[in-house]
Design a protein that fits this description.
single chain; 160 residues; mainly alpha; 2 domains
Length: 160
């Protein structure tokens, strides 16, 4: 319950920031008045959202929503946006060998043994190691090839 109250207080802060940037004439005093109307108590000369109960926080958030705050609730059954704003069709589990390849490549980059720690650079390296073209993605590599590449990366990481 305490985590939910903390989360809602964070949302009130986000809504306040939105209102200050978006609503004409909205000020800190307007926010203070909203908190007072929701049932907030005065602390150090200001009405504080930390004094609001869960139901009072609901009231404050509903007030911001009525003013146009675009609160977007999280629904676990809907796909989330990807890192670059793409909609993911479904979330796939990363094969353990691919995760290991990525982890080792990242460690090599961190150790300064490779200049580019990105996936594209790793795919290019995989293509060179396999003696062919750069694979389009990690799924194009067979499990045996992945294991061979993992061993090569481990050996490279172990070198001084």
């Amino acid at each position: 319950m305490a985590d939910l109250v903390k989360h809602y207080r964070t949302l009130v802060g986000i809504a306040k920031t939105w209102a200050l940037k978006t609503l004409p004439g909205w000020s800190d005093e307007s926010h203070q008045d909203l908190i007072r109307r929701a049932g907030g108590k005065r602390v150090d000369g200001r009405y504080s959202a930390t004094t609001l109960t869960l139901s009072q926080l609901h009231i404050a958030l509903a007030d911001y929503e009525a003013r146009g705050w675009p609160r977007k609730p999280y629904f676990a059954d809907k796909p989330k946006a990807g890192g670059r704003g793409r909609q993911m069709a479904e979330r796939r589990e990363v094969p353990p060998q691919v995760a290991q390849l990525l982890r080792l490549w990242g460690l090599l980059a961190k150790a300064g043994k490779v200049q580019d720690g990105g996936r594209a650079a790793l795919l290019a390296w995989c293509g060179r190691q396999m003696g062919g073209e750069t694979p389009p993605n990690f799924d194009a590599l067979a499990v045996a090839e992945r294991m061979q590449l993992i061993e090569a990366l481990k050996a490279w990481l172990a070198r001084e």
